[in-house]
Structure formats: structure tokens, C-alpha cells
Design a protein that fits this description.
Blueprint (H helix, E strand, L loop, with lengths): L3 H4 L3 H22 L13 H24 L2 H4 L4 H32 L3 H30 L6 H28 L3 H15 L2 H6 L11 H12 L1 H11 L3 H29 L6 H26 L7
Helix pairs in contact: 2-3, 2-8, 3-7, 3-8, 3-10, 3-11, 5-6, 5-12, 5-13, 6-12, 7-8, 7-10, 7-11, 7-12, 8-13
GO molecular function: zinc ion transmembrane transporter activity
Organism: Natronorubrum halalkaliphilum
GO cellular component, one term: membrane
């Protein structure tokens, strides 16, 4: 992913290049409204619905994650101290997502026919997911028989946690699509593009500590794992529209994120005397606040019509 010609590019190009690509994608979506007239959704075949939601899910999930991963050549050459800071920023992003999804769990559980059942399933979802990922991590460490941690394996865990979260995004897209609400659908996609672009560097931050660059297929696989489930969520949202299912998926994602945060802290601790430094605390807070701006403030502006395309 970072060939010799990429390494020869100026640092400022590596830093702002993904931003420019994101701007182009965002502009195309914003000004072209590519989803068309949804008034015929009711008469569409199942295959047509699945195909359209696949395209929309790729635009909202896989593409922005891939754009964010383009920061890998920039962050991999950072000093260890600053690489840890970047990983702390990624942890802040994950922590915000966990808090946001906790609110979603309570919201969907409250809207479910049986709130107590939904909350019970959510608690089980968090606990079982955390336990399974913890046991998998312990097995992996025993298998490796070394104190060294694989950044690539941590990156795959991060991608999995983000992928579980992406199912919830897809549920919203699927519901908006099946209801024929083109304006809401466009607004959701725009918001998720802005949101998911931060997931790319979150995934590759752990890999950046490795001396050797993994083969390109790993980046492609992690991008699909992190962003692809938006497509699955869209399919489920269009046919199920279940608050109980949404609460369970969000809870599963929360459990995965909690385990990934522990793994990332261990990864930092392997190279440093302390995890909680002033720099790490600052970047963690910045990541959390940045996601608040992207997820809440800009989404509200979109929904209130301030940023709606003409």
C-alpha cells in the first residue's frame, strides 16, 4: 500500500491527499443526489432492492473507510510517541462510538414491543461478545508464545468492532430506503461518509507500528470488514425493521469495542512505560470530540436543512 513512490511523496501530500479525495466524493454525493426517485420502491423486486442497498452501503461504508486508510503511509513513519498518540486518537473514536451506541441501545429497546427483553438481550450481547473476543485474544497470545503483539491482528479486531457498529448504520439506511424517503436517505449517507472516513485510520493505526507493510489484500479485507456490514444492515433494515434486532446489534458492537480498547492499550504499553500520558490523553479527547462534531453537530445541520443540496 505504501510503495517506494508513495514514500517519496512530500509529507504534506500524504497528510492532505485523503482529505481532497473525501471532498471530491462528498461533493459528488451532495450535488448529484444519486439515489433518484424512490417512489417506485414498493413495486421493486427483491433483487432490485438488494442491489440498490448494496450500492448505497458501499458508498456509505466501504468507500469512506478506504479513503481513511489512505493515511497509512503518513502515520506509519511517525515517531513511536506520536504513533501512540494517533492510536489514542483512534481509541477516542471508538470510545465515542461505544457511547453513541449505548444511547441507541436504550432508544431501540424503548421502542421495542418488549423493552425488558430487548434490554436483557443487549446485556447478554455485550457480555458474550466481550467474553468471546477476550478468549480469542488469550488463545492468540498463547499460540504466539511471545510477548510481542501483532499489530495486524489488532487491526483486524478493530475492523471487526467497527463492522459490527456499521450494521446499525445500515439499518437506518435500509429503513429510509424502503420508506421511499430520498431526502433522508441522502442525508444519512452524507453523515455516514463523514463519520466513517475516520474509521480508516482507526483500523490501520495498529498496523503502522509494524516494521513491514502488510500485503495490500489485508488492507482490502479490513476495509470490507469495517465498512461492508453497512450493506448487511441495509438489507436487514429494509426487510426486518426490528428495534429488538437493532438493540442487539448495537450491544454486540459495544462488547467488541470494549475488548478492542483493552487490546489497543496493551499495544501501546508494549512500547511505552505508560499508556496515559498527556499527549495520549489529549489525542484521545480530540478523537472523541471530533466524532461528536461529525456525528452530532453536522448531522443535525443536515437534518435541519442547513446543508441540504439545492
Amino acid at each position: 500500500m505504501s510503495g517506494r513512490w508513495v514514500d517519496d511523496l512530500p509529507r504534506w501530500v500524504l497528510a492532505i491527499g485523503p482529505v481532497l479525495i473525501l471532498g471530491i466524493v462528498f461533493g459528488l454525493l451532495y450535488f448529484t443526489s444519486p439515489f433518484g426517485d424512490l417512489s417506485t420502491v414498493d413495486s421493486a423486486s427483491t433483487l432490485e432492492i438488494i442491489w440498490m442497498l448494496t450500492v448505497i452501503g458501499a458508498i456509505a461504508g466501504i468507500i469512506p473507510v478506504a479513503i481513511g486508510m489512505l493515511w497509512f503511509p503518513f502515520i506509519r513513519n511517525l515517531n513511536t510517541r506520536y504513533l501512540h498518540a494517533f492510536m489514542a486518537l483512534a481509541a477516542g473514536v471508538l470510545a465515542f462510538i461505544a457511547v453513541e451506541m449505548t444511547e441507541d441501545v436504550f432508544e431501540h429497546a424503548g421502542d421495542a414491543e418488549n423493552t425488558a427483553l430487548a434490554l436483557g438481550l443487549a446485556v447478554v450481547g455485550v457480555g458474550v461478545t466481550f467474553a468471546v473476543m477476550y478468549l480469542a485474544s488469550e488463545w492468540r497470545q498463547r499460540k504466539m508464545a511471545t510477548t510481542d503483539k501483532s499489530g495486524l491482528q489488532i487491526a483486524y479486531l478493530v475492523a471487526l468492532a467497527l463492522g459490527l457498529h456499521s450494521i446499525g448504520e445500515g439499518l437506518g439506511i435500509g429503513v429510509a430506503y424502503i420508506q421511499g424517503d430520498a431526502s433522508l436517505l441522502l442525508l444519512l449517507v452524507l453523515a455516514f461518509v463523514m463519520h466513517n472516513v475516520m474509521e480508516g485510520p482507526t483500523v490501520v493505526a495498529a498496523v503502522a507500528r509494524e516494521r513491514e507493510t502488510p500485503p495490500l489484500r489485508h488492507f482490502a479485507a479490513m476495509g470490507v470488514i469495517a465498512g461492508g456490514p453497512v450493506i448487511l444492515g441495509g438489507w436487514i433494515g429494509s426487510f426486518a425493521q426490528s428495534d429488538l434486532l437493532a438493540a442487539l446489534f448495537f450491544a454486540i458492537a459495544i462488547g467488541a469495542i470494549l475488548q478492542v480498547l483493552i487490546e489497543m492499550a496493551d499495544l501501546i504499553r508494549f512500547d511505552a512505560e505508560a499508556v496515559l500520558t498527556r499527549v495520549n490523553a489529549a489525542t484521545f479527547s480530540f478523537g472523541f470530540i471530533l466524532m461528536f462534531i461529525l456525528e452530532d453537530v453536522l448531522t443535525e445541520l443536515l437534518l435541519e436543512g442547513w446543508l441540504v443540496p439545492a
